[in-house]
């Protein structure tokens, strides 16, 4: 855990600081990573803190939970990798009732479970697509996951919307390839993701810009609102027929930051 990296997140406009105790930490360094977390996690940082613990089906995952509770570290967001949704979220929401829980959909089992949920488990705020592990499970090169797993991404977004959850896209694994990052952002927005994980400070600005509501969309939304306020029901303007769905979408756009 490096204080310098935390400061970079703050300077580059990140929404959340993501502390990873799982994939980013070799097995033999898990214990020291927990100790290091205490020095950079306190609430003196202005950004919300998210802690990605190890899989709860492992000893390391259980030790992560015990560590956080022992030292009274209350993450605003707890990220659950390779989650068994109903079981893991129930446990974590009981221990951290005030935390937002994001489950990483990166196994075939969690993907299947998400599709068959009839309601979101209590405490679950969103899902994150774990492209690398999911690609390997499908015998696909992780570097090709953004394109080859589009149908999976679309269904994750669809089910997240059905359950009232946020859907966050996996990171671009080429931190200095801005063209590739931009293409992934455009695709993620089209599929319905509301954000994207960054793995390098240089990715934060493009991601923020790519997921921000453009002023041209706001102008169009205000126009639709004015048209339907004056003529409730169905009307037309110079571009298209307008009705209640257009009004609802315009209000959605104007509610975005």
Q: How many domains make up the coordinates?
A: 2
Kindly estimate the percentage of residues that lie in beta strands according to DSSP: 5-15%
The appropriate CATH architecture of the largest domain is Alpha-Beta Barrel
DSSP summary: helix tally: 12
What percentage of residues falls in helices of 4 or more residues?
Answer: 40-55%
Helix-strand topology string: HEHEHEHEHEHHHEHEHHEEH
Number of strands: 9
pLDDT < 50 runs, ≥5 residues: none
Q: In CATH, what is the class of the largest domain?
A: Alpha Beta
Shape: globular
Mean pLDDT: 88
From the N-terminal CA to the C-terminal CA, the straight-line distance is 31 Å
Structural class: alpha/beta
Radius of gyration: 20 Å
Strand order, largest beta sheet: 1-2-3-4-5-6-7
Q: CATH homologous superfamily of the largest domain - what is it?
A: Phosphoenolpyruvate-binding domains
Oligomer category: single chain
Largest sheet: 7 strands, parallel
Cofactor: Mg(2+)
GO molecular function, one term: lyase activity
Pfam families: HpcH_HpaI (PF03328)
Protein name: HpcH/HpaI aldolase/citrate lyase family protein
Description:
This protein has 257 residues and is α/β, with parallel strands linked by helices. The protein folds into two domains: 3-211, TIM Barrel; 215-255, no CATH class. It has helices spanning 3-11, 30-40, 59-70, 85-95, 108-116, 131-137, 145-148, 150-163, 178-191, 201-211, 215-230, 244-255; strands spanning 17-20, 49-52, 77-80, 100-105, 124-129, 166-169, 195-196, 235-236, 241-242. The strands form two sheets. A seven-stranded parallel sheet has the order 1-2-3-4-5-6-7. Strand 4, helix 5 (108-116) and strand 5 form a beta-alpha-beta unit. Helix 9 packs parallel to helix 10. The two termini are 31 Å apart. The relative contact order is 0.08. This is HpcH/HpaI aldolase/citrate lyase family protein.
């Amino acid at each position: 855990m490096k204080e310098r990296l935390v400061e970079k997140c703050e300077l580059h406009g990140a929404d959340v600081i993501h502390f990873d105790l799982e994939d980013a930490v070799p097995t033999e360094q898990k214990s020291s990573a927990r100790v290091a977390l205490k020095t950079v996690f306190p609430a003196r940082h202005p950004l919300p803190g998210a802690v990605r613990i190890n899989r709860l089906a492992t000893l390391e995952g259980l030790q992560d939970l015990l560590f956080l509770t022992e030292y009274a570290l209350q993450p605003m967001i707890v990220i659950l990798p390779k989650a068994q949704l109903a079981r893991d979220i129930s446990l974590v929401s009981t221990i951290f009732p005030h935390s937002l829980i994001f489950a990483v959909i990166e196994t075939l089992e969690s993907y299947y479970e998400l599709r068959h949920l009839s309601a979101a488990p209590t405490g679950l705020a969103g899902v994150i697509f774990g492209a690398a592990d999911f690609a390997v499970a499908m015998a696909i090169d992780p570097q090709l996951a953004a394109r080859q797993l589009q149908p999976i991404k679309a269904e994750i977004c669809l089910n997240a919307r059905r359950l009232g959850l946020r859907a966050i896209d996996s990171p671009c694994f080429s931190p200095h390839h801005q063209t590739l990052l931009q293409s992934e952002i455009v695709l993620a927005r089209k599929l319905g993701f509301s954000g994207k994980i960054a793995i390098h400070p240089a990715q934060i600005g493009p991601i923020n810009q790519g997921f921000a509501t453009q002023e041209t969309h706001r102008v169009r939304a205000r126009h639709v609102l004015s048209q339907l306020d004056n003529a409730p029901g169905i009307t037309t303007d110079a571009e298209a027929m307008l009705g209640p769905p257009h009004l609802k979408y315009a209000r959605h756009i104007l509610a975005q930051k």
